[in-house]
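Lab manual, section 2.4: Encoding a predicted structure.

Procedure: take the sequence of the chain (338 residues), apply the prediction step described in section 2.3, and record the output as structure tokens. A sample record is shown.
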Amino acid sequence: MNILAIESSCDETAVAVVRDGRTVLSDCIASQVEIHKIYGGVVPEIASRKHIEAIYPLADQALEQAGLTRSEIDAVAVTYAPGLIGAVLVGVNFAKAAAYALGKPLIPVHHIRGHIAANYLTHPELEPPFLCLVVSGGHTMLVDVEDYTSMRILGGTRDDAAGECFDKIARVLGMPYPGGAALDCMSRGADPNCYSLPRAKVDGNPLDLSFSGLKTAAINLIHNAGQKGESIDVPALCASVSAAVSNALLSRTLLALDQTGRRTLAVAGGVAANSRIREDLSREAERLGLRLCLPELRYCGDNGAMIGAQGYYEFLAGHTADLSLNAYATKSLMGERL
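Recorded output:
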């Protein structure tokens, strides 16, 4: 089954063609990083306009690279939630038009489910059940993947996501957008114990996380040093922040594995590319004899292939939509089916 998949939830316009949920025939991305870099972050209105400009030619490019004609597409999958509402609307409207013109089924895909499914592309042998640590700029959660379309959130952040914490600290340090990647690069080889930073615990659910205190502590440290005319060891601070985030994620993940009895751990989302987090998880997985599935770096960030992968399993489960499909800025991972 050949699925044309569209992702436009933030600042990457992405169109891919995926066969049977596991084989990527094409994966085309039009990045807006250079455009938003001058603002230090994504400007939603600009992102939406750039999606409109890029999406049609990108779809043609994806078909050409896949070596397929339009008539050989069997369904159209699209991210319908969550994300920047204007950006998501561009993808949803294009997908509805494409599905209508082709006379093919329309498959709505939750963005986070897509990130989880990125692991099926890197690890074709992976099948549920497994535990997945989702870490991105806007989301941090532990998900028990019981089946391809049946999932339970075991814990998540009560405030800032891990990626947001990285990005905002990087911005205060004057690092270029995207800040999380720059902070990760700067941290490599530096002392992670140089600065003492908080590791928060949340009352009521030991699997929940909180990163706002860490973010505030790091930013206050930077501002206080500046006010006193003192210097900051920037690489060491970056390494200390990375260690604090990784420690928090690792402790909750190990507890969730213990509670669920899962022996397979997958990681998903843009922050899954962070070198410290990958190293810490790999070390603990080896120590405990766990199976660890990390997506290739190209599938950590937003991409169309992950939407095509999850779209296949949503289709098999009968989760399709008609032309009344709408876009949503926020929606639970277990949101009602459409």
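Check your result against the sample. The chain has a mean pLDDT of 96.
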